[in-house]
Structure formats: structure tokens, C-alpha cells
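> example.struct
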């Protein structure tokens, strides 16, 4: 169980996240949603220990440190690989440093994305680099896989096929926390939606609960955010009137 208790992160006095409480269990697929600046990336980086924060984050009751950090993997559009190395070189490096590295999954995903194995990653397109970032995170052998906008630069067909592949390869104990703006695309993939706004969790619902209530994920987000359906009309009207 990944538990986040009363976690706050400030940037020079400005709030990144505030008093966040969240528990994510084994095998969950959680979508982390919110507008730009809501705190999604900040929360993921606090979990990984990239940022100092106030509060407590534990994994099965233990603080996250060098003894258990290998149970967490991270796929980020900022990239965490070595750009001068090839995928083949990364495979060797990961095998040396992560005893649970899943070679079969690595090779299968490389084939699925049709990525060259012996070319330096700096020569890949942005979309290919993001694909490889996801491959590394999924092959590391971690129990909790955190993804921050991992599909930037990929076309809709690649993304749709990948969701299907991912559902087929995940083990029952593997947990995904996925931060993305692609709400409608991932609705059938996730099992739970957590909504952040201005650094606070303002919504937490399972997709089963949404289905039972007859609401879509987009409905849930709009209702929680109190979205004004006539917002665009009002703005256009105001601009036209001023002219």
C-alpha cells in the first residue's frame, strides 16, 4: 500500500500541493487529473523523493528510501534515460541494477513500438523517446509505476493500442498511477480517478461508481470543477461588446 498523509509542498512560499491524503493499493490503475498547475507532477515527484515536503509518504508502512525505491518506477516526458546510450545499453544497465528486470516484457514492448535497439536515444523522435521511457518503467520490475504525461508526441492509434497491451501484460500486484490530460482516452483503462485542483484533492471516485451513477469521467470533472458550459459564449460576447 502506498500511503500519502497530510503532504504539503511549497515553492518559495507558493503552494504546490496542500495537505494531500491518498492511499493506493496493489493492483490499482489510478488516473491523476487536473488542470495545468494543479499539482500532479509535484505529487508524483514527492512520492519519488525528488522534492522535500511536509507530511508522510510510506510504502507498506515504511518510508521510501534506498532500501525500497526500486519498488517504484517513473515514466516522465522530462525523460530519465541516458540520451547517448542505446536501448540495448539501457537493457544491460537495468539488468545489472534491477534484479526483477523483466527482459521478456522489454523485448516485447520494443517490438510493439518498433524501436531500434542500437541507435542512441538522442537520435529518436520525441514520441519514440517517450515510448522508450514507458518501456523502461514497465520493465524495471517495480510494484508501483508512476507515469507523468507519458504519451506526449504519440498519435492516437499508438496510444489506444498501448492501453490494450498494457492491460494485457500487467500482473495483479502491479499498480499504475497515470497523470494525463487525456481523460476520455483513459476512461476505459483506469479503475479510479483522483482529481487535483490548486494543490488539493477535490475528487476521488472509482469508474464503477461513475458507471452506477450514469456519469462519464468528463461529467465528473466538470461537476467537480463547477465548469461553466457557457464560458466561451460569455467570453466571446464580452470581447465583441468591447469592440
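> example.seq
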Amino acid at each position: 500500500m502506498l500511503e500519502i498523509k497530510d503532504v504539503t509542498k511549497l515553492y518559495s512560499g507558493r503552494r504546490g500541493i496542500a495537505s494531500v491524503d491518498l492511499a493506493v493499493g496493489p493492483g490499482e490503475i489510478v488516473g491523476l487529473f487536473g488542470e495545468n498547475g494543479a499539482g500532479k507532477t509535484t505529487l508524483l515527484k514527492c512520492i519519488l523523493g525528488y522534492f522535500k515536503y511536509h507530511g508522510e509518504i510510506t510504502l507498506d508502512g515504511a518510508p521510501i528510501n534506498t532500501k525500497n525505491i526500486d519498488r517504484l518506477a517513473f515514466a516522465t516526458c522530462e525523460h530519465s534515460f541516458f540520451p547517448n546510450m542505446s536501448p540495448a545499453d539501457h537493457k544491460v544497465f537495468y539488468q545489472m541494477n534491477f534484479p526483477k528486470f523483466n527482459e521478456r516484457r522489454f523485448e516485447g514492448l520494443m517490438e510493439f513500438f518498433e524501436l531500434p535497439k542500437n541507435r542512441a536515444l538522442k537520435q529518436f523522435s520525441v514520441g519514440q523517446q517517450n515510448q522508450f521511457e514507458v518501456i523502461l518503467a514497465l520493465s524495471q520490475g517495480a510494484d508501483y509505476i508512476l507515469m507523468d504525461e507519458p504519451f506526449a508526441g504519440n498519435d492516437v492509434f499508438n496510444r489506444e493500442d498501448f492501453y490494450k497491451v498494457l492491460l494485457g501484460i500487467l500482473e495483479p500486484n502491479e499498480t499504475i498511477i497515470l497523470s494525463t490530460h487525456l481523460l476520455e482516452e483513459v476512461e476505459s483503462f483506469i479503475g479510479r480517478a483522483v482529481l487535483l485542483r490548486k494543490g488539493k484533492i477535490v475528487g476521488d471516485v472509482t469508474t464503477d461508481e461513475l458507471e452506477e451513477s450514469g456519469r462519464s469521467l468528463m461529467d465528473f470533472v466538470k461537476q467537480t470543477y463547477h465548469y461553466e458550459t457557457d464560458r466561451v459564449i460569455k467570453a466571446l460576447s464580452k470581447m465583441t461588446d468591447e469592440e
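> remarks
The radius of gyration is 19 Å.
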